[in-house]
Amino acid sequence: MAVAPTVIEGRVEYAFGTFIFILRWLIRWRLVGIRGWAMDDWFSVFAWIISTIYFILIEELSVYGAAVGFTQEMREALTPEMVQSFEYGSKILFALFGLLITLQWSLKGVLVSFFLRLTRQTKIHKYVLGVAGISVASYVAAIITWPTHCLPIRRAWQILPDPGFECSLNITTNIVLAVGSALVDALLLVVPIMIVKDTRITLFQKVLIVFLLSTGVFVMGITITRCILSVDPGADRVAQNSAWGNREILVTIFAVNVPIVHVLFKSETWKKMWGGTRTYVQTTDRDGDTGMSGRGTKGSKSSKMEIYKMTDIHMDNHESKTKLVHGNGVPGAFLNSDATKHSSNVLADKRDDSGEECDNNVSV
């Protein structure tokens, strides 16, 4: 039996998505160790688990099918065996919607948590906290709409009589999912602009940082496209809906992980990842936040600046740490080595109130 093109596409997309996740985990493991992982890293693990279950069920759905967009006449023409098969497939499709909602917001959790960590010592941190709250509210709205848009719930997989397009096409769920997802992505697009607008770096560097942190615009586009195509009634909607759902997942996986994976293109990253062993120390910053930080055994002062420490801020030598708190800093991981020669690390070698030198490593 020939394998459907959409199934092959789904397998390729799952493989690429898993590869991106593995790259992320490898980078984070080598640079900060498992004990140095932050909330966005654990969100990525959860998202990969959900995506694995999702793609397994997609394979099952391709075997059984579902009566998506079928009219009453088309349903009456089905054989008893096809009715039974489509009913089981419709149950799988119902479960897939719940997984898709959870997966999409798990991936948003990766990016929102990353931004919270990235802006922890800046004035836009409260804004990101607000976006996080809106993201949670959007997820709750979507997850409630999923089982309640078609009541009683058994109508979601009912074949005969025709339960209507609302039940078979999940129109309301698709709209709530798309609106909530696009809203959160749009709000997050403001963050990189606010990060770089007052910084003293080149225009190219500003554009690069904004691009790396604004890939959510692609997610918005494909989310809206999937929503429009998914609510269009007609036969053979299952293959098209599955294909666009898979594409949306892959694009989202890429978008939320590109700020991490991009460091592979830096020579400093390879030196840090493979240049020596790591030891871990528990550290505390001035705000009382504690965490584990990795430190290479090779090198002296350079080892104090983590390549992937997103709370490192490079500033002009004449700027003070006070300006950093007011939002004039840029994450050091996004600046190239040439730029760092003319800037100082605000978080490097702080001194406590007694005048003694203290460790400034923070959790990453």
TrEMBL record:
Biased composition, class Acidic residues, residue ranges: 354-364
Residue ranges of the region described as Disordered: 345-364
InterPro entries: Rhodopsin_dom_fungi, SAT4-like
Membrane topology term: Multi-pass membrane protein
Signal sequence coordinates: none
Subcellular location: Membrane
Domain of life according to the entry: Eukaryota
Name the record gives this protein: Rhodopsin domain-containing protein
